[in-house]
Amino acid sequence: MKSMFIAAGLMAFAALGASAEAAPEGNPPTSFTLDNGMQVVVVPDHRAPVVTHMVWYKVGAVDEAPGKSGIAHLFEHVMFKETKNIGPEEFTSIVQRSGGQLNAFTSWDYTAYYERVHKDQLGKMMGLEAERMVNLTINDDPKGPFISERDVVKEERRQRIENNPNALLQEQALSALWKGHPYEITVIGKMEEVGALTPEDGLAFYQEYYSPENAILVVAGDVTEDEVRTLAQEHYGPIAPTGVAHGARKWEPVSPIAETQLITHADPKVRQPVWSRYYLGTSLSRNYDEALALDVGLEVLGGGMTSRLYQSLVEQQKLAINIGTYAFTTLHDEGPAVIYGTPVDGTTLEELEAAVMAEVNAIMDSGFTEEEVRRARNKLAASAIYEKDSQASMANQYGAAMVLGFELDAIAAYPDKVREVTVEEALAAVRAVFAADKNYIVTHLLPAEGDL
Amino acid sequence: MLKLQLFSGAAAALLVSACASSSVPAPHPLDVSVAEPVFLIDTYDGDFVDIQQMTTPGGVSVWLVTEPSIPIVSVQMAWRAGTTSDPAGLEGLSNAVTYNMNEGAGDLDSLAFQTAMEDLNMSFGCSNSAEWTSCSATMLAENAAPSMEVVASAFTAPRFDQGPFDRFVREQEVALKTRETSAGYLAWRAQSQALYPDHPFAREVTAESLAALTPDLARQHQRTLMTKDRLLVTAVGDITPEALAPLIDAAVAALPETSDLSPVTPITLPAVAAADPVVVSLPQPQSLVRFLGPGLGRDNADYFPAYVLNYTFGGGGFESRLMKTLRVEKGLTYGVSSSIDPNPAFLVWSGGGQTKNESAGEFVAGIRAEMQKFIEGGVTEAELADAKAYLIGSYPLGFDSNSKIAGNIMSVRQDELGVDYFDRRNALIEAVTLEDVNRVAAEYLAPERFSFFLVGEPEGLSAE
C-alpha cells in the first residue's frame, strides 16, 4: 500500500532528534502568537513554489479517558467528514481539486493535520482548517459517518497490528512497560473500546481539545513570515479561544518497571524467532541532556553495522542475523530503550540473550572510545543537515518539538548539543538505563506449532 | 530554453584537483597550454527544474541539477540490467553483487569501509530490480571529493570478501523462510505462477540457488551488470558540472565498456482472466486482495487517458471511486487503490487492498461492480475535471526536495521520456477528453480482464 491513504496516518513518534541544523543565512525559522493564543511557526524554504501547512493539536492518546482508548485517533478520521459549511466528504475534494495532498496522524502526545499545496493555495488551506477547528458536524445517526469510520479504524487496526505478530507483541510490551501510566493505552485503541466509542464521545472530545489556544500552526516552504502572519490573522485570528483546553495534560513521570517479566507471542506466521529487552529510557522533555547522551550511547552500542553489538554478535560470534538498539526519546514522558536481535539457526533465544547481555555488560565495564563516540555524534548531527532536504519533514520536526514545549532556538541548537556529548556522558546514560538492578520486559516472538 | 556552455577540459580538471583530496586520480594528463574544449553542457531551463546535461571527458552521460541552498549532493547511477540477468540456477546472484558493493574495497574490509563512510557522514549502497541495477551515494557537499573516492574504490576494487558474503547468504536463508508467511509475497507468487510461470519475472531465489553462489561468481557478475554502455548518471545538489565531472569519471573508470545481456521478452496477459479468484491460505484476520489485468504503455495514444482515468478509478486516494464506495460508504477497508505500470515488458493495470476475512467476498464483488459501472456509465465531466485539476495542480509537489528531483530525473532517463518531459506532461493531461477516458474505461476496466488473488482466510467468495 502506498502512503496515499488519507486521514490514515498513525505516527508512532516523530524524529524530533534529527531536527534542524542552523538554517540558511537570512532564512531562519521564526514564530509568533496570535491574539487568540494560537502559536505560529514559519520555516522558509524557497526551492520550489510549494508549502506544507500543518495544524498540531496538543492532544493525543495520553489525554484519553479510561475505557475510551483510540478516541484521539478515531477523532482524527472524523475531522475529515463534514462541517457547517463543507458538505460530507467534501474537505478532501476541495484540497485535491486545489492540487493538494493531505493527511493526518496521531501520537501519544499530539494530533496533526497537514496539506501540501502550491503556495498560491495557502490561504484556502487555512480557511479549510479554520472551518473544521470550530464548525465540525458530528452526526449522531447510528448509521452515520462516525459509525462507518469506526469500522474503517477497526480495519486499520487489523491491517497494522493484528495481521502482524511482531506488532502485536510490541503493543503488549509497551503496555507492560507503561503499566499505570496513560501511555499504557495503545494509540490506535483496543478493538472493543474503539467499537464502543459514540458520536457523543467524539463531540465531547472535540469541544474539549479543538481550539486555537490548544493548536500550533506550522508553515514550511516558499513563504515569508509576513505572508503567513497576514493570512493567519485573516483565517485563524477571528476564532475565539474556548478556554476549556487543558493547561495541564495527563503527562507524569513513568514509574520504574515493577518486575521483570517475559512476554511470549507464538504465531503460525512467525518463521524466525525474535528476542527483545525493553528497559525504561528517558526523554528529551524529561531530561534533555541524558536523552541526548542516550541517543549517542545507543548509536555506539547498537546503531548499525559498525556498532559494538553488531560487530560482536553478527560478525564475530555469528550468533545473530541482526541486532540493534533504539529508544523513544522524543515522547514527552519516558519511553522504552530496546535491545533486539534475531538468532541464527541453531541458537535459542536464551542463548542469544546470554551472549548479548554478556557483551552489553562487558562494554559498560570497559567503556567507549573517543573515536566511536565522535562518529556517533557526527552521524546524528549530520542527519539534521540531510533532513533539511525535505520541507515536509522540517515542518514535522518543528511541529513535534513545539507541541512538547520546545522553543525555536532549542530546536536549532540540536546539532551543537549533540556534538557536546562526551564519552563519559554517553556511557553514563547507557549504564543508567541498562543497569543490573533495573527491571525489564523480555519478549519472545516464536513460531507456533501446526501447519499453515 | 536551451543554453550551451563550453568548458575547457584542462581548466575544469585543474579546478577540481585544486579542491579535491590529493588521492583522487586526475581524469587525464593535464596540459594547461592546450585549452581544448572537451565537454559540452546543455542547460535545459524547465518550469519545474533546470537540468544540465553533459558528457564527461571520460564519456559518461550525466544529468545534473545544481541546487546550492542545502549543502548536500546525491549521485545516482543506474544500469539497464537486473535480477533477470541471473544465470539459471544462480538466482540471487545480482542481489549478492549489490549487497556486497559497500562491504569493502581496496585496502578496506567491510568494517573499515563502513567506518570510512561514517567518518565522511556519507552513504553509498546498491540494489536491484528485475531490469535495473542502481547505486546511490549521498554526501555532504564539503566532502564530495573524498566521498566519491570511496564510491570509486567500490567500483574499481570491490573485495567480495567471504565474511560479508556468508552474512548475505545467512540473511537470504532467513528471507526464504519469512517470505512464506508474507501476504504480499504470497500474492506475488500466486500471480507469477498463474500468469507467467516460465518468464524470468517469475524466477525466485531458492535454497539450491543460494547454495550455488560464490564470491567469485559475484565478482564476475558485477562486471556484467555494471558496464559503461548501460550506465545512466544523475546528480542533484550543491555542486557544479565542472566539479562533478572528474569525480564521476574517476568513479566509473574501471568499469568494462560492455557486456552481453539479452533484453527480457515482454509478458502478455490474457485478455480474459480466469473467473475464479486464486486463494492462498494464511492464518490472519484480514485477507489481502490483489487484482491485475492488461495495461498499456507510454507509446500507446491511450496512455494519458488511462492515467487520468486511473485517478478516478483507484489512484486518487479518497477521491477514487474504489475508496468512496469500499471505505467511506461501506467501511470495508482501511485502503484500496489501483495503478498503471507502463513497464514495456509487463504492462499491467493493478490494484488491491485488505479487508477482514468475513467481508472478502463482498470486497471482491464491490471492486468488480465499480469496474462495471465505468463500463456502463463512464466518467462524469466533473470527475474528469477533478482528476485533471489534481494531477496538474499537484505536480510541483514532486520537485520540492533534492531527493525527489533526483528520483524524477532518473526515471525520465530510464523511461527515455526526454529532458523536456516535465514541461510537456501537464499539456498531455490537459488534452485528455471525456470521450478518450470513457473509451479507455470500456476497453480496459472490463471486470473479466482482471485476475484476482487473495491471501488470508477469505470467506464469501464465488465465481463471477
Distance between the termini of chain A: 24 Å
The quaternary organization reads as heterodimer
Number of strands of chain A: 11
Low-confidence stretches of chain B are 1-37
Distance between the termini of chain B: 55 Å
The structural class of chain A is alpha+beta
Q: What Rg of chain A do the Cα atoms give?
A: 23 Å
Mean pLDDT of chain A, to the nearest integer, reads 92
Widest sheet, order of strands of chain B: 1-2-3-4-8-5-7-6
- Spatial extent as radius of gyration of chain B: 25 Å
Proportion of residues in β-strands of chain A? 15-25%
Can you describe what's shown?
The complex is a heterodimer of chains A (452) and B (464). With 452 residues, chain A is an alpha+beta fold. Chain A has helices at 71-78, 90-97, 122-134, 145-162, 165-177, 191-196, 199-209, 225-235, 288-302, 308-316, 349-366, 370-387, 391-402, 408-412, 414-419, 423-433, and strands at residues 30-33, 39-44, 50-57, 101-106, 111-118, 215-221, 261-267, 274-280, 320-327, 336-343, 441-447. Chain A contains 16 helices and 11 strands. In chain A, the strands form 2 sheets. In chain A, strands 1-2-6-3-5-4 form a 6-stranded mixed sheet, sandwiched between helices. Residues 1-25 of chain A have low confidence and may be disordered. Chain B is of the alpha+beta class and 464 residues long. In chain B, strands 1-2-3-4-8-5-7-6 form an 8-stranded mixed sheet, sandwiched between helices. In chain B, strands 9-13-10-12-11 form a 5-stranded mixed sheet, with helices on both faces. The relative contact order of chain B is 0.14. The chains are: A alpha+beta (452), B alpha+beta (464). The interface between A and B is large, with 72 and 66 residues.
